[in-house]
């Protein structure tokens, strides 16, 4: 079977019968047995709102590990009070967001094998949000913004169980609902990252995407209830601040095409409402008729 | 006296996963002021990890489905040890709970005629799982989270305050349930970020804290799963049942080591994936137990035919309940027919087109590509069992989710016991969260309302004791903590909580794992006694602001308590059933079918080495006759004693 | 609590970026170790090169017609002072008073289309304006209002330029068709120039149709795809093209310059069009 061969090469000497690790059954090597290990150089930001700086560590790395494993090893061996947020360690919850070598990433999805062994790996907290301690930041901004987006408005006259939607109609919103709220897009977006003063006016890519999600929801009844999400995207949530430089799409660990599929379509929808006399006229005439 | 800010709410929900949020929504919709306390950020609960779907007999794909069939499947999956009333309520109410999610904005995958699509899953007779690709848990948690936000927006319009009637205290941990006499009076918590203590006073407390998986080394569970709710309930005087039943999910990742245990969804098999050993054989055909013989295919042709034409074929044995599949994989690996890294092969690459795989299993594709360099559209995955779920939990009233014996305490979701019997079917967890989350919220609200002005009181002495206990790992140096002076007592070097945790995980994994033996479990209890002793000497560095070492030290108390429950109950149950497999008692025993093992806190002993858990055996109420009539007599004979059958 | 969900009381908006007081104290504007400057620098150079070349050619008012080929920079030719092109895109909308190069009239439209294009916006905001220079690299500006105000709010009129670009592309298609003549306007011939024009027009169309506004107009604005199956299918096709918008933007930019340059070579006599048949 192909995997046997493939993983054999991946695991190096691990499976070889001449492997010296005698412990454990052949088929079930102890996690730490075999594989390659080496010492890596890390610089981790430590401190709190009062101040802090990058601290150097030398720490062991085993085959197949991710950055979060290394941070955990630091906790267990060298810095027991190193603060870090994490949960699932499988790229599904979006808790362990940090900046690794200056790039916003999930620590659990950043494999050590992408780095050169001699390289010093720098890990800092997200730099768009206030720091709490070490790698933990105050992401309250995002929860505030989440509250500012009016929720799904259920259609009148349809009870539970009566909703009918076609797959092609829910597909677009489903893509946006893959979001794990890691807030990496919010962190990398220069509108707030480089301009604290824009935070009150700008919802950020994640929550503009939420507006797009609801506007594309086939049964959302916002319009019927007098809420125009297309206009409010620009007037209330600061869509105009976005200059579509696509960093949000670049960092998204879920691979959501935030800019192309959510933000630009939303800009076009806002343009329909606010900058397109043809559409305006068309709607006027249709409503007459 | 400890300084701890006090806040007053009507209902406190501990945990913000599916059950907790559903309970909170219900309590708030009943008009009560509801606080949710959770260890992580809002929206990060372990529920996001659920992949496959929500089991509900809506009959959208196969009209033959109804609640009776779902009930039957659930009872069979749990080997008839389920609290039958819970299984009944669950099967009856699950469809309503799913439909309700749509009115809150959830977007499930659709059938051709626009209804919610449903997929096949292990142990379910019909396609039953409402799903969104393989990220159903994320959809569930996000929908509930957004529903909470929408309620907050409603309150904001009315009162100008988003948190007037529902508030989430995120990144806070509850260490004690405080009581006023018999009644629950509130909870004692610390804020992870600052380390500050606070008390939430409330007549109703809903436990929705999830499971205990972090006591095991190879687990699909996140760090939050330290059995907090189980332990809080014990310490508050409630009892736990069925703690010997721990579900090992058959398919977790086995390589590389750092991701060992991460879940590979059952949908892989539901959608056509097959298990093979190193010889290329679909070995599950060799492991169909007698009780399931009629329901499962005997040849590969028959099994493959089922995906297209389920009415004229029997199911592939890969879709047996999880306990059976996990044991089979374990046996194959032990027999030397495992994969290079100690698992077996799970293959979809030869079963579906690459496009289909990417569409139906996007997160599995992503997970294996990113974490293991495996392209599942081209090669098989390596998988092995991983600790996934605990069937045991707080002993609750089936209808109200109220914990027996502690007025004001409720439990829902994984922390509640009974619903799943000895083994949970895939997909039944998410529906369990919704059905019993709502019930717990509803009855907690009713109970709190009934208290009226007669609210229980949180006394300072209780708060001081809880604070002292929480500060203990800092030794005498940190803040005033009268009882910790010399509390460490026993001599010996200070202990590192990370080290203790690792040893605990190793012990549980090796000695109370998927296959159990009497000597090993006895040895586990010995080790737990030693760990308990060493835990008294735990010392942490640093201060109280976001100090993970300290947090772990506090969680270890809970893990040690629930681990002892698991080991003690497992040692006592001399049969194999569902999530409890004894090497020395390999068969199912009909006499044991109607027995629950009940754990309570033992009276405090002088010697820290003597166990903290008392165990007793309790008879289950007989299954209601109209429910029994849903089964064929021939099937019941396999589970029920002759005496039970005749009294029916 | 700072991770709480309540908005912070004291948080009057303070100006500042990654070195703002409450953020982690790190002096460096960024900690990226890769060659992040390569992409914006390359973009800026590429765009600059095109600007220099096209400015020269647009103002030149010469060497833009070599029968049967007309440079795409000068088509349609809307002034009286245009070179006479038989069957070609002469439309004398602008009278004799127009003394400048006729290219300046028509180029506004493709230029406007590209200037307001969602891809080019990204490219020049990053490459020329350093806003931001690259992801997670601090930008040098004190203030930022994005596209909320004049003049950048005008980016919202992209769709009108799209409509115009479609008209221009139609004319260029006609020009390409005329390329199947020889220098004496006999039909049924083909030269190397015809191929150059063919490649160019395919890229121009692909770029124009892959436009985000086009994707929106074709189907993106619908709420229910299921009720408009034809538009849904079109939306899907445009979506596939749209995923390559950046590549098409560059490819068509280069091809249009090459087509013009080819005409320049022919018209200035530096090169003779090899005839295929």
Automatic annotation (TrEMBL), chain A:
Protein name as annotated: Fumarate reductase iron-sulfur subunit
Gene Ontology BP terms: respiratory electron transport chain; tricarboxylic acid cycle
Coiled coil ranges: none
Domain 2Fe-2S ferredoxin-type, first and last residues per copy: 40-127
Co-factor requirement: [4Fe-4S] cluster; [3Fe-4S] cluster; [2Fe-2S] cluster
Keyword Transport on entry: no
Alphabetized CDD domains for the sequence: fer2
MF terms (GO), sorted A to Z: 2 iron, 2 sulfur cluster binding; 4 iron, 4 sulfur cluster binding; electron transfer activity; metal ion binding; oxidoreductase activity
A GO cellular component annotation in the UniProt record: plasma membrane
Keyword annotations from UniProtKB, A to Z: 2Fe-2S, 4Fe-4S, Iron, Iron-sulfur, Metal-binding, Oxidoreductase
InterPro entries: 2Fe-2S_ferredoxin-like_sf (IPR036010), 2Fe-2S_ferredoxin-type (IPR001041), 2Fe2S_fd_BS (IPR006058), 4Fe4S_Fe-S-bd (IPR017896), Beta-grasp_dom_sf (IPR012675), Helical_ferredxn (IPR009051), SDH/FRD_Iron-Sulfur (IPR050573), Succ_DH/fum_Rdtase_Fe-S (IPR004489)
Pathway: Carbohydrate metabolism; tricarboxylic acid cycle
Family label: Belongs to the succinate dehydrogenase/fumarate reductase iron-sulfur protein family.
Chain intervals for the UniProt region annotation (Disordered): 1-35
Pfam families in the record: Fer2_3, Fer4_8
From TrEMBL, chain B:
Keyword annotations: Coiled coil, FAD, Flavoprotein, Oxidoreductase
Cited Pfam families: FAD_binding_2, Succ_DH_flav_C
GO molecular function list: steroid dehydrogenase activity, acting on the CH-CH group of donors
Region feature (Disordered): 473-498
Keyword Coiled coil: yes
Cofactor(s) in the UniProt record: FAD
Domain FAD-dependent oxidoreductase 2 FAD-binding: 10-430
InterPro entries documented for this protein: FAD-dep_OxRdtase_2_FAD-bd, FAD/NAD-bd_sf, Fum_R/Succ_DH_flav-like_C_sf, Fum_Rdtase/Succ_DH_flav-like_C, SdhA/FrdA/AprA, Succ_DH/fumarate_Rdtase_cat_sf
Keyword Oxidoreductase found: yes
Limits of the Fumarate reductase/succinate dehydrogenase flavoprotein-like C-terminal domain: 501-600
Coiled coil: 514-541
Source species, domain of life: Bacteria
Active site location: 322
NCBIfam families hit by this protein: PRK07803.1 (NF005866)
Annotated protein name in UniProt: Succinate dehydrogenase flavoprotein subunit
Organism: Streptomyces cacaoi
Automatic annotation (TrEMBL), chain C:
Domain of life (superkingdom): Bacteria
UniProtKB keywords: Membrane, Transmembrane, Transmembrane helix
UniProt region (Disordered), positions on chain: 1-21
Biased composition (Polar residues): 1-11
Membrane spanning residue stretches: 36-56, 97-120, 160-181, 187-207, 248-267
Protein name in UniProt: Succinate dehydrogenase
Species annotation: Streptomyces cacaoi
């Amino acid at each position: 079977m192909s995997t046997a061969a493939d993983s054999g090469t991946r695991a190096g000497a691990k499976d070889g019968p001449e492997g010296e690790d005698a412990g454990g059954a052949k088929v079930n090597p102890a996690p730490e047995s075999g594989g390659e290990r080496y010492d890596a150089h890390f610089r981790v930001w430590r401190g709190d709102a009062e101040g802090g700086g990058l601290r150097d560590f030398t720490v062991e790395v085993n085959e197949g590990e991710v950055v979060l494993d290394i941070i955990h090893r630091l906790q267990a061996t060298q810095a027991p009070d190193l603060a870090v947020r994490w949960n699932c360690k499988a790229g599904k919850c979006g808790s362990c967001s940090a900046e690794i070598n200056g790039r916003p990433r999930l620590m659990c999805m950043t494999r050590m094998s992408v780095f050169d062994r001699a390289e010093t790996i720098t890990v800092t907290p997200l730099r768009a949000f206030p720091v709490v301690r070490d790698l933990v930041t105050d992401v309250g901004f995002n929860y505030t913004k989440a509250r500012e987006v009016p929720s799904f408005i259920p259609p009148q006259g349809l009870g539970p169980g009566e909703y009918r939607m076609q797959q092609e109609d829910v597909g677009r919103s489903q893509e946006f609902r893959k979001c794990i709220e890691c807030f990496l897009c919010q962190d990398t977006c220069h509108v707030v990252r480089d301009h604290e003063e824009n935070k009150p006016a700008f919802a950020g890519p994640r929550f503009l995407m939420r507006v797009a999600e609801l506007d594309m929801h086939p049964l959302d009844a916002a319009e019927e209830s007098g809420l125009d999400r297309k206009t409010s995207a620009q007037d209330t949530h600061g869509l105009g601040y976005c200059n579509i430089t696509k960093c949000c799409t670049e960092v998204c660990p879920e691979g959501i095409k935030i800019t192309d599929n959510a933000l630009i379509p939303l800009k076009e929808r806002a343009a329909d409402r606010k900058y397109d006399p043809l559409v305006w006229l068309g709607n006027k005439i249709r409503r007459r008729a | 006296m400890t300084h701890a800010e006090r806040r007053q709410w009507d209902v406190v929900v501990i945990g913000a996963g599916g059950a907790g949020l559903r309970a909170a929504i219900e309590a708030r919709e009943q008009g009560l002021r509801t606080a949710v306390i959770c260890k992580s950020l809002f929206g990060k609960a372990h529920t996001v990890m659920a992949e496959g779907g929500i089991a509900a007999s809506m009959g959208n794909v196969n009209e033959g489905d109804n609640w009776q069939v779902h009930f039957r499947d659930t009872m069979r999956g749990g080997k008839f040890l389920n609290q039958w009333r819970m299984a009944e309520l669950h099967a009856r109410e699950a469809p309503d709970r799913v439909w309700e999610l749509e009115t809150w904005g959830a977007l499930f995958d659709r059938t051709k005629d626009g209804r919610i699509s449903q997929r096949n899953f292990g142990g379910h007779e019909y396609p039953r799982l409402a799903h969104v690709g393989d990220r159903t848990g994320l959809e569930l948690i996000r929908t509930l989270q957004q529903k909470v936000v929408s309620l907050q927006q409603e309150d904001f319009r009315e009162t100008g305050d988003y948190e007037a009637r529902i508030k989430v205290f995120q990144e806070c941990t509850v260490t004690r349930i405080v009581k006023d006499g018999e009644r629950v009076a509130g909870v004692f918590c610390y804020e992870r970020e600052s380390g500050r203590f606070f008390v939430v006073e409330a007549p109703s407390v809903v436990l929705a804290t999830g499971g205990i998986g972090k006591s095991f080394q190879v687990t699909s569970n996140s760090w939050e799963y330290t059995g907090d709710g189980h332990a809080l309930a014990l310490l508050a005087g409630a009892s736990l049942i069925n703690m010997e039943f721990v579900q090992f999910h058959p398919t977790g990742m086995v390589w590389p080591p750092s991701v060992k245990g991460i879940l590979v969804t059952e949908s892989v098999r539901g959608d056509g994936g097959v298990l093979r050993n190193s010889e290329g054989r679909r070995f599950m055909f060799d492991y169909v137990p007698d009780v399931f013989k009629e329901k499962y295919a005997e040849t590969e042709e028959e099994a493959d035919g089922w995906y297209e034409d389920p009415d004229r074929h029997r199911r592939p044995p890969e879709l047996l309940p999880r306990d059976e599949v996990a044991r089979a994989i374990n046996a194959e690996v032990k027999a030397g027919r495992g994969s290079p890294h100690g698992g077996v092969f799970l293959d979809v690459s030869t079963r579906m087109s690459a496009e289909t795989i990417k569409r139906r299993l996007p997160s599995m594709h992503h997970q294996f590509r990113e974490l293991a360099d495996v392209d599942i559209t081209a090669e098989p995955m390596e998988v092995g069992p991983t600790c996934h779920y605990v069937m045991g939990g707080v002993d609750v009233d089936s209808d109200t989710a109220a914990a027996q014996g502690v007025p004001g305490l409720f439990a829902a979701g994984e922390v509640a016991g009974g619903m799943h019997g000895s083994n949970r079917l895939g997909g039944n967890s998410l529906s369990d969260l919704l059905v019993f989350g709502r019930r717990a919220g509803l009855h907690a609200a009713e109970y709190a309302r009934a208290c009226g002005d007669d609210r229980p009181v949180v006394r300072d002495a209780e708060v001081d004791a809880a604070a002292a206990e929480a500060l203990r790992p800092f030794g005498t140096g940190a803040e005033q903590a009268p009882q910790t002076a010399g509390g460490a007592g026993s001599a010996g070097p200070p202990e590192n909580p990370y080290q203790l945790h690792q040893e605990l995980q190793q012990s549980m994994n090796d000695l109370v794992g998927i296959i159990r033996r009497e000597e090993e479990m006895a040895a586990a209890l010995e080790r737990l006694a030693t760990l308990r002793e060493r835990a008294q000497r735990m010392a942490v560095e640093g201060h109280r602001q976001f100090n993970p070492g300290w947090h772990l030290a506090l969680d270890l108390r809970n893990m040690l308590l629930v681990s002892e429950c698991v080991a003690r109950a497992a040692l006592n149950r001399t049969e194999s059933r569902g999530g409890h497999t004894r090497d020395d008692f390999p068969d199912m025993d009909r006499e044991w079918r109607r027995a629950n093992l009940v754990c309570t806190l033992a009276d405090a002993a002088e010697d820290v080495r003597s166990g903290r858990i008392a165990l007793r055996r309790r008879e289950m109420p007989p299954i209601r006759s109209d429910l029994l009539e849903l089964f064929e007599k021939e099937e019941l004979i396999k589970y029920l004693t002759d005496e039970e059958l005749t009294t029916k | 609590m700072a991770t709480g969900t309540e908005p912070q009381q004291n948080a009057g908006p303070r100006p500042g970026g990654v070195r703002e007081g409450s953020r982690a104290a790190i002096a460096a504007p960024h900690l990226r170790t890769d060659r992040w400057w390569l992409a914006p620098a390359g973009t800026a150079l590429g765009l600059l090169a095109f600007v220099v070349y096209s400015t020269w050619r647009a103002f030149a008012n010469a060497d833009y017609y070599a029968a049967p080929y007309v440079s795409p920079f000068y088509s349609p030719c809307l002034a009286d002072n245009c070179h006479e092109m038989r069957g070609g895109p002469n439309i004398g909308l602008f009278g004799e008073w127009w003394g400048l190069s006729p290219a300046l009239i028509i180029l506004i439209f493709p230029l406007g289309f590209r200037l307001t294009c969602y891809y080019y916006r990204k490219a020049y905001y990053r490459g020329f304006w350093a806003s931001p220079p690259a992801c997670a690299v601090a930008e040098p500006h004190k203030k930022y209002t994005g596209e909320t105000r004049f003049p950048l709010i005008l980016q919202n009129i992209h769709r009108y330029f799209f409509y115009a670009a479609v008209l221009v592309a139609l004319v260029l298609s006609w020009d390409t068709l005329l390329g199947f003549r020889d220098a004496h306007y006999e039909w049924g011939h083909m030269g190397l120039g015809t191929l150059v024009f063919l490649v160019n027009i395919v890229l121009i169309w692909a770029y124009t149709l892959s436009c985000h506004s086009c994707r929106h107009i074709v189907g993106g604005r619908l709420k229910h795809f299921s009720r408009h199956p034809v538009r849904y299918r079109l939306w899907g096709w445009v979506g596939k093209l749209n995923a390559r918008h950046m590549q098409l933007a560059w490819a068509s930019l280069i091809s249009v310059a090459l087509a013009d340059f080819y005409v320049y070579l022919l018209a200035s006599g530096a090169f003779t069009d090899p005839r295929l048949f």
